[in-house]
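Need tokens for this chain, all 375 residues.
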Amino acid sequence: MTPARLLPARLRRARTAVAALASCLLLLAAPTAAASPVAASPVASEPAPGPPPLTDGFGLTQVGTAAGSATDFVVTVTTPQVSGQHTIRILLPADYAQHPDRRYPVLYFLHGASDNPGDPALAYPALTAAQSMITVIPDGGLRGWYTDWLDQGTAAGAQNWETFHLNQVLPFVDANLRTRTDRAHRAVGGLSMGGFGALHYAQDRPDLFGQVLTMSGANDLSADEMVLRGAVVAMLTNAGTVLCGPSDGRPCGLDFGPTVSSDAIFGTPYPVFNADWRWNAADPASRLGALTHTGIAVYTGNGNGNPADMEFWAEGTAKRVKDRLDALKLPYHYVDYGDGTGWGADCHGGHTAGCWAQDLVDYVPRLEAAFAAAP
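Here are the structure tokens for all 375 residues:
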């Protein structure tokens, strides 16, 4: 081999350049132990969409901003019709925002005594899973009884619950959300005290509601059902009552608000010389003829035959409603699940949220089908 010192200078320079280039290529191809990996820049996540903006109106003034997600949120309002602040929970279908041209039927769902729509427990799974309807759960008070009270001068202040719901909440919802506004695409339903309210509203305003649901409802306030009257009076006077089963499972409290007269809502409850005529006039079981063109659903358990369980008495009123619907030859959907065997994993026949959750599992698909079939 020719010694490097004997090569021409130009050739030595060329060989040196090739060697340097090879060394660079090796360095580029080989991993460098000392080099730190380059971390990917974090991508800022989009904030979850919030509730849609709602505009005050129809006597309702919003307090603060809506709380919750884009499809399950609570607004707080004030109104001269009912003393204090009141929450309204609204459940929208999951695809509501993706279909800006679509309008949806509405279920107004009325809670029971001692409940509050601000409690997430009232957003029952069957309601949140509904894909083709909006659900509105307005505050009915701890003992509002979905009625404009006879006595507006009590320590409880203004108590015009029916006016609040039908003349204010309903048009407020229609003005702010994409609703179907005909009766065939609007339903009212409720549980316990709210079952009374649902029948009461459907009977008072058949022009508004084409479907009605009562679950474990206080369906009979006539003199035939003095136990229910007594329960209402116990709420007014804070004497305690079995006529509630809060949806969050907590025991019923004894404080339903300022103590008021037993006559505050419907006048005297005592059936003497027809003095209780207002109770009889408000009794849903006596007014079923007003539901001639309304879809009707009734659910009840039996309280395991225990008179200390409110469901024992609810079953009696449900059976009377069924008998009278039969006499009127009106169609209806009726379920008596007895002790709850086979009616969901958490229903044992009592006046409890586990049974109401399963009622809604059965009812919601029926209601959505009825809405879909309506012209």
